[in-house]
């Protein structure tokens, strides 16, 4: 049996993670070229592949955010969130290890940093690990207040 705080904690985790995805995707959806530039700056993928991923990523982030906001397929959405976050953490760690001087592009812009600017990789990884913990919580305990899932399973 679930404790009484569970659905409220789940609601907070679900809405918090939804807000992250909606903000991140929303910030990039109006500048798909900038999103593609940010993905390409990691120098992990061929240019054409980075362009396609950069153009698709904002829409994927918004879709995941909307699913979490509604509480629809919460466990699956949280699992996909966790997967995306692990890819982002690996990408940032890779850029850091290779000495790249880029903005992660997580919430828009992205690409090469201007002269004199320093990357904030440690902060970006710590932030994404925090989001990953929220996703992990929702994978284990997807039940939350005011979710479509709750009404579908009754």
Automatic annotation (TrEMBL):
It comes from the Bacteria. The keyword Transmembrane helix applies. InterPro entries: Methylamine_util_MauE (IPR009908). This is Membrane protein YphA (DoxX/SURF4 family). It is a multi-pass membrane protein. It is found in: Membrane. The keyword Electron transport does not apply. GO terms for biological process: methylamine metabolic process. GO terms for cellular component: membrane. The chain crosses the membrane at residues 50-69, 76-97. Keywords: Membrane, Transmembrane, Transmembrane helix. Residues 8-140 form the Methylamine utilisation protein MauE domain. It comes from Catenuloplanes indicus. Pfam families: MauE (PF07291).
